[in-house]
Amino acid sequence: MSAVAAVGTASEQPVVRLEGVHKRFGALEVLRGIDLTVAAGTVTVVLGASGSGKSTLLRTVNHLEKVDAGIVEVNGELIGYRRSGRHLRELHEREVLRQRSRIGFVFQHFNLFPHLTVLENVVEAPVSAQRRRRSEVEPEARALLARVGLSDKAGEYPRRLSGGQQQRVAIARALALKPSLVLFDEPTSALDPELVGEVLDVIRDLAVSGTTMVVVTHEIGFAREVADRVVFLHEGTVVEEGSAAQVLDAPRHERTRAFLAKVL
Ligand code: ADP
Ligand code: MG
Questions:
Q1: What three-state secondary structure class fits 81?
Q2: Residue 11: what pLDDT?
Q3: Contact residues of ligand 1, CB 6 A cut-off
Q4: Probe ligand 1: pick from 30, 61, 65, 66, max atoms within 8 Å of CB?
Q5: How far apart are CA 262 and CA 74, in angstroms?
Q6: Could you give the CA distance from residue 116 to residue 155 in angstroms, rounded to a whole number?
Q7: Which is the most buried residue in 91, 183, 198, 243, by most CB within 10 A?
Q8: What angle do CA 64, 67, 73 make, to 5 degrees?
Q9: What is the pLDDT of residue 130?
Q10: Nearest C-alpha neighbor of 22 from the set 14, 30, 13
Q11: Which residues of the chain fall short of a pLDDT of 50?
Q12: Which residues form the signal peptide (predicted)?
């Protein structure tokens, strides 16, 4: 990277910034001081054993979980709170919903609305959460369905689709909000092996087009291919972080090596 490019990158505001994030459930401290920065247009893959805090970490970013300490910022905006002098005050639910509506979230189990058609699933949030006009949203929703290869399924109900198709609808639905950030929580873990590829293809396409993403996944080959950064979480702390080549091919930490030996 040239010096000029390096300076340009450093001065750009990160899309996500976590600083000293702690979260506990009762006696269990699930996140123990997480610092994390996600630059615009990059893909961050989060790895870690089951129970290491990956889902909780993602959920703090769009305020599905409140943090006990530390700060979460998206596009420079504090999530869930506003500054009031030296104190932080909680935002109203309405404000939280506004913040959340700018962050796409794709879940392991798709979470489509079963009583709505595929098209209605994609149209719903922009119309109800963002108060956009249906006539404007619908053509965009159809274009998104085309992008994930499901133009012909617009009128179907989710139960009539395969898991891979349902997850592609869920991705189209997340994109309909025109999010500045998309979070994926093990998007292929619930799929039969033969359906994993079609979903990863869609996510790869988003990566190529510069969508800022944080992806929790155990698909190491995919991580090696698309991740700009890989973060390895162990018991609520980031024990290792770096380029895919560094973390996946030359892990420095014993925990990372042990984890990779199991999943590879
Ligand atoms: P991962 O996604 O890495 O598997 P999670 O973030 O889901 O890990 O969970 C981390 C730990 O926090 C686990 O021990 C889990 O049981 C616990 N946990 C997660 N959510 C809750 C909750 N709402 N209440 C109590 N414990 C929770
Ligand atoms: Mg999880």
A1: strand
A2: 59
A3: 25, 28, 30, 48, 50-56
A4: 30
A5: 33
A6: 9
A7: 183
A8: 80
A9: 87
A10: 30
A11: 1-8
A12: none
> How high is the pLDDT of residue 10?
52
Both tokens of 67, joined, read: 């943090």
In the numeric block, the tokens 């996140």 are attached to 31
CA of 53 to the centre of ligand 1 (A): 6
The amino acid present at 49, given as its one-letter code, is A
Distance 186 CA to ligand 1 centre (A): 14
> Which amino acid, 165?
Q
Ligand closest to the CA atom of residue 34: 1
Residue minimizing CA distance to atom 23 of ligand 1: 25
ipTM of predicted complex: 0.98
CA distance 216 to 195: 18
- Which ligand 1 atom sits nearest the alpha carbon of residue 48? 3
The protein residue with its alpha carbon nearest to ligand 1, atom 15, reads 51
Sign of CA dihedral 123, 129, 135, 141: negative
Cβ 12 vs Cβ 216: under 8 Å: no
Name the amino acid, one letter, at 224: R
pLDDT tens digits for 98-132? 898 889 999 999 999 999 999 999 999 999 988 99
What residues contact 140, with CB distance under 8 A and at least 6 apart? 126, 176
pLDDT of residue 5: 45
Alpha carbon distance 200, 223 (integer Å): 10
